[in-house]
Structures are given as structure tokens and as C-alpha cells.
């Protein structure tokens, strides 16, 4: 593909990303993958270049752009060599018109930038939300250790003993250690959230929003396969990924339960007052994961944010009923918005006066409200809020 044709391809993809953001359609990575599947003439270098253009344009446009072309023109203001690609050639974009609309640059839509600022997220921290994420792994102590694991490259040691960092895009899935279940891909922030849960051998632990089980597997390792570990979620498709992953990781014996949204206790009621630790890795806006999914900033609305907050309140209440005296609830969101972190946790404590905040001691992060905030800028992790509450005996 010529450079101009790559720019036109990025414009077409961005049009679809913008449509999807407005209509709750597919995420950008799926749209890019579809494009690659349907345009086999594009070689690996073309695909990489087009992908890079798409993500760079998403990163620099604050508000949802009118069109993919307006987004690419905004990128061309920063990288002027791109302007030459608007050459009217056969597969390239039309020449730039004199009065053409250019998307406005910024970090996120205005209301969201303001909400982040009100949540104490400084300008530099907001910019870092749109940086490039490295690739972190967790050494699975059910199968290996830092001493025994053999990796084709040396990783950067991180703040937890079993965590290593590699450059973004490292193909760890092709490594024998990955295929053998000795390592898992997991952002250090997620690993720290599991550290805050401090699941111990012999305990009964519930991963309430387990998804495909990223954190469940870390909990299983921390429990050394002793005790009872239950993983629940409302999403059957994600839940189905858990058991094969668990098998690969040597994490036998995980119980899985499929929940009905709003009626979780119908399936979890038998655990009432039985559980030592409930991890509530709650659904959220994902402002802390924009490094991986920058278009999420265009998809969020104030209404959706309120829905997340309501669901987080509800899940905290469900979790609290299941915990036995002396047990704990660990509340985690991958967001830097107070509305999805400190405010929810505070509301929980106010509404449940027997519970006490127990701020986790972690090697990274800063206190925010009665929990810990991790951020790409300060900690090099995805953005997270992590809080722990205990029910005294
Ligand atoms: C942040 S993700 C969890 C990620 C997962 N813990 C991990 O480490 O990979 C939130 C999950 O909550 C699930 N969820 C949504 N509503 C729920 C509900 N009412 N009860 C339990 N899980 C729910 C979603 O399906 C999603 O998988």
C-alpha cells in the first residue's frame, strides 16, 4: 500500500470507530481486525502502519470527531508529513480543502476531562492515560517461580516479586512458558488488586465479577489450591474462557457460577455469611485502561457513568451479605473517576455502619479517599481504585 492508501484506510476505519462509539458498536481493535481480514492485500507492515494511524488519531482527538477524515486531519496538524498523503491519488484521500473541518485536539470529551480534573487527576496524569501500555506478566507460582521459569528475554523486575515487564507488543503468547501455563499476561495494577485481596490457603474466596478469570487465576495461585474459590459473572461467553485457562494454569477446583443481573443472590445465596473474601472487580467506565482502549473515552456518557455507579453500589451490597464476620470485601475499578471509586466505597461504608475501611498496604499507589489509586503516570500501571473493607467479628 502507498502511504496515501494507508491514510485512506485509517480514515475508513475511523469512520466505523466513530459510528461504533455513538451506537455502542464494536471496539476499535475488532474493527481493525475486520478490516485486515477483508483486505488481504494489506501486508503486515501495512496493517501495523494503519493501526498506528488509527490509534494515534483516536489519542489526539478529545471530542468525538465528526468524521474519520477530520480526525486524520487533526493528526496531520501534529505530524505534517501526513499532509502530503492527502494527494488525491487513486487509493489516497482527496486533497485538503481550504475550509475543511479538522477535529479538535484534546484528551477526552470536555465533560469527562472535567470529571477527571474534579477527581484530582492532574493534566500530566490525564495525558499519561493515553500513553502506550507495556506488557506485564505474572509468573504463575502454581507451576513455576522466578528462579525456575525460563523466558527468551529478560523482563524488567517490578514492585511485586512475580511480576515482570516487557515492551508493548512482545509476543509472549508464543513462548513455551506461556503455553505451559507458567506465565500469565496481567497488568501490574491487576496483580496489585489481587495482592490487596490477600487470598490465603484454606479460605473461601469469591471472585464476584470474574470475567474470563484473569484475577481468579492470581487468587488461585495465592491460595496454593487450598480452600474454596468460586468465580461468578453474568457473562456466559467470558465465563467459558475461564476453565480452559485454569486448566492451563494448573488451577484445579475453581467453582463457576453464572449470575442473572440484579438477581445474583438467587445463585449465590447459599454463601451468605460464609465467605472470607469477596473480590468485587466491578464493571466500570475503564478510564484507567485508555492506554489499551483509547476510544473508550468517546463511548462514555454521563448516563452510562451513572449506570456503572449504580451497579457498583449494588454489587458491593451483594458482596457484603456473603462475607462472614472477620471477612473482607475488596472493591476494585479500573477507573480514575471518584464517582466509580472513592465515592462508591464511601457510600458503602455510610450505608453499612458495621463495616470498616482497611486501606491496603501496597508497594505502589497513593491514597485516594479510603482506598488506593494507581495511575499510569505515577505507577506505570493501568489506572485503578482499590479499597478493602472488613466486617469485624
Ligand atoms: C472489570 S470486568 C472483570 C474482569 C475480570 N475480573 C478480570 O480480572 O479479568 C467486570 C465484569 O463484571 C461482570 N458483571 C457485570 N454485571 C455483573 C453482575 N451483576 N454480577 C456479576 N458480574 C457482573 C462483567 O460481565 C465483567 O466480566
Write up this protein.
With about 400 residues, the protein is α/β, with parallel strands linked by helices. The protein folds into three domains: about 5-105; about 135-185, Alpha-Beta Plaits (2-Layer Sandwich); about 190-390, Rossmann fold. It has helices at about 5-25, 30-40, 45-60, 70-80, 110-120, 125-130, 175-180, 190-195, 215-225, 235-250, 265-270, 295-300, 300-320, 340-350, 375-380, and strands at about 135-140, 155, 165, 185, 205, 230-235, 255-260, 275-280, 325-335, 355, 365-370, 370-375, 385-390. Strands 5, 6, 7, 8, 9, 10, 11, 12 and 13 form a nine-stranded mixed beta sheet that branches. Strands 2-3-1-4 form a four-stranded antiparallel beta sheet. Strand 11 (about 365-370) and strand 12 (about 370-375) form a beta hairpin. Helix 3 (about 45-60) packs across helix 4 (about 70-80). The longest helix is centred in the N-terminal third of the chain and has 21 residues, at about 5-25. It starts with a helix and ends with a strand. The structure holds S-adenosylmethionine. S-adenosylmethionine binds near residues 190, 212, 214 and 315.
Briefly characterize the structure.
One of its GO terms (biological process) is RNA methylation. The protein is of the alpha/beta class and 393 residues long.
